[in-house]
Amino acid sequence: MAYVVGVTGGIGSGKTTVANLFAEKGIEVIDADVIARQVVEPGSEGLKAISEKFGASMLNDDGTLNRSALRGHVFSHPEDKEWLNGLLHPKIRQEMITQTAQAKSPYCLLVIPLLVENGLQSLCQRVLVVDVSEATQVTRTTQRDQVPEEQVKNILAAQATRQKRLEAADDIIFNENDSKPLSEQIETLHHQYLALAAQ
Ligand code: ATP
C-alpha cells in the first residue's frame, strides 16, 4: 500500500509551493482540488446527476459545469448544498483512495486544503501542516489573487483555526519569511518519509 502524507494548511499558506518542492524530488502529488474538478468533468456521473437535478442552467455552452451558477444556487439553498456534498464527497474520497493507491513513488503527497475541516485524516498515514500566521496568509493571498483583504479574511474565518490544524499535525512546515528555508525543511521531512515508507 502506498504511504500517504496528507498535506494541509489554510488559504495561501504555501501548500502548492511545498508540494512542488516535493515533486522536484520525484514524489507524486495528488491534489484534492484537481480531483474535485475531475468528478464533475463532462461525461462524469457527477455532472450528469447535477444537470438532472438542477437543469441545463448549471451547464456552460460547451457542456462543462457552470461553477458560479452552481455556487450561487447552493448558497441560497442549503438543502441543495447538502445534496451536492452527499453526491460529491464520496466520489472525491473514493478517487483520492484510488489515485494514492496507484502512486509509484516511495511515498506520495495528498494535498487536501480542508483535510481537518472534513475529517479526512484516515486517508493518510501522516499529516503535514503548512503553517503561517494569519497576517501572512492575508498578505500573500491578496497579492497572489489581487483580491480585497476582506474577501481573504472571510475565507479564513470559514476554515479551521490555525490551532485546530496544528493539533492534527504530525509534522509542520513553518513558512514565514524568516523561517528556515523551505528546501531545508523539506529535505529533512523527505528523508523521514522515505524511512517511514520503507518500514
Ligand atoms: P491556496 O490554498 O489558496 O491554493 P496554497 O496554500 O497552495 O494556497 P501557495 O499558492 O503555495 O499557497 O502560496 C500562496 C502565495 O504565497 C503564492 O503566491 C506563493 O508564491 C507565496 N509563497 C509561498 N511560500 C512563500 C514563501 N516562503 N515566501 C514568499 N512567498 C511565498
From TrEMBL:
Its EC number is 2.7.1.24. Belongs to the CoaE family. Keywords: ATP-binding, Coenzyme A biosynthesis, Cytoplasm, Kinase, Nucleotide-binding, Transferase. SUPFAM superfamilies: P-loop containing nucleoside triphosphate hydrolases (SSF52540). GO terms for molecular function: dephospho-CoA kinase activity. HAMAP family: Dephospho_CoA_kinase. It is an enzyme of class 2 (transferase). Coiled coil: none annotated. The keyword Chaperone does not apply. ATP binds at G12, S13, G14, K15, T16, T17. Catalyzes the phosphorylation of the 3'-hydroxyl group of dephosphocoenzyme A to form coenzyme A. Gene3D superfamilies: P-loop containing nucleotide triphosphate hydrolases. It catalyses: 3'-dephospho-CoA + ATP = ADP + CoA + H(+). This is Dephospho-CoA kinase. Pfam families: CoaE. The keyword ATP-binding applies. Its main location: cytoplasm. InterPro entries: Depp_CoAkinase, P-loop_NTPase. CDD domains: DPCK. It is found in: Cytoplasm. Pathway: Cofactor biosynthesis; coenzyme A biosynthesis; CoA from (R)-pantothenate: step 5/5. It comes from Grimontia kaedaensis.
